[in-house]
Amino acid sequence: MAWIFLVIAGIFEVVWATFMKLSEGFSHPIYSVLTVLGMIASFAFLAKATHQLPLSIAYPVWTGIGAVGTVIIGVILFGDKLSPLTWVFVGVLFVGIIGIKLTAN
Known about the structure:
By secondary structure, this protein is an all-alpha fold. The chain contains 4 helices and no strands. The protein has one domain. The chain has helices spanning 2-22, 29-49, 55-78, 84-103. Helix 1 runs antiparallel to helix 2 (29-49) and helix 3 (55-78) packs antiparallel against helix 4 (84-103).
C-alpha cells in the first residue's frame, strides 16, 4: 500500500505544479487554492508512504514522478519544447525511478 500512496503523492506533485503555472503567479484565486490543496495532498500521501518506506527511497521516487510528470504536462498542455537530448535525460530519470522501485527492499 505504501507504493500506491507514493504514486498518488507523485501525481499530486504534478497536479500542484500544473495549477501553480495556471495561477499565473498566484494571481488567479481558484488555481492558487488548488495549488495549495495539491501540495497538501502530495505531502500527506508522501507522509503516509514514509510510514513503511525509507525516506531514502520514498523521496527520490516522489520527486522523480513529479519531475517526469510535470515535463509531460508542460509539453502537452503548455506547448513546452524540449530538445531530443532533454528527452533522453527525462528517460534516464524515468529509468532511475523504476530502478529504485525494483531494487528497494
